[in-house]
Design goal:
This protein has 172 residues and is of the alpha+beta class. It has two domains: 3-35 and 70-122, no CATH class; 136-171, no CATH class. It is built from five helices and five strands. It has helices at residues 9-15, 19-30, 78-90, 97-104, 108-122; strands at 46-48, 54-56, 62-63, 136-141, 166-171. The strands form two sheets. Strands 1-2-3 form a three-stranded antiparallel beta sheet, with no helix packed on it. A hairpin with a 5-residue loop joins strand 1 (46-48) and strand 2 (54-56). Helix 3 (78-90) packs across helix 5 (108-122) and helix 4 (97-104) crosses helix 5. It is elongated.
């Protein structure tokens, strides 16, 4: 999907002003010449079942263009997905989930889910090589054993043991 070809969010929203325009775009991208192919049996004939649904003749299963894509199973509109993709991919350092949730009027959890799907689809890996001066620090996270509830205390705990702590390291 090449939603990054737009110069601004306004251009994107002009191009995809309706849900139908988003569906037509996906059909052109997903299927050769926009002719539907069944994900269940590629050799099967496909019938137009309803406005956005198709039916595979051999398996009698219904499907739409979002099957086997990052949009599969999502109840969000494709316009929101397209805006999220644009916002995530058009910024050099990305966009925070909280900011994106405000921009597309969904919850933080929904944006987090969308972020995971988009990153998986585009193969975005958040790895960068460190160069120059690097600062490291480590700590152990977890409360004191004596302050825990009786059944949450770590057995055979003595001194500065970190059996009950999680090591954490940060780099800058």
């Amino acid at each position: 999907m090449n939603i990054g070809k737009f110069n601004s969010l306004y251009d994107l929203l002009e191009a995809f002003s309706t849900e139908e325009s988003c569906i037509k775009y996906l059909e052109q991208q997903h299927w050769a010449n926009g002719i539907p192919v069944s994900p269940y049996d590629p050799t099967s004939k496909v019938y137009n079942h309803s406005d956005e649904m198709y039916r595979c003749k051999n398996t009698s299963k219904n499907f739409n263009v979002s099957i086997e894509t990052m949009f599969e199973g999502s109840k969000l509109s494709l316009r929101k997905w397209f805006v999220a993709i644009y916002e995530i991919t058009s910024r050099k350092k990305g966009i925070s989930s909280i900011e994106l949730s405000k921009r597309i009027s969904v919850t933080y959890k929904t944006v987090w889910f969308m972020n995971q799907r988009i990153r998986e689809c585009f193969g975005i890996v958040m790895e960068e090589k460190l160069d120059g001066e690097v600062e490291l620090d480590e700590t152990f996270v977890g409360g004191k054993n004596k302050n825990r509830h009786y059944n949450k205390k770590v057995k055979k705990y003595q001194g500065r043991s970190f059996k009950d702590k999680v090591p954490l390291m940060g780099m800058l």
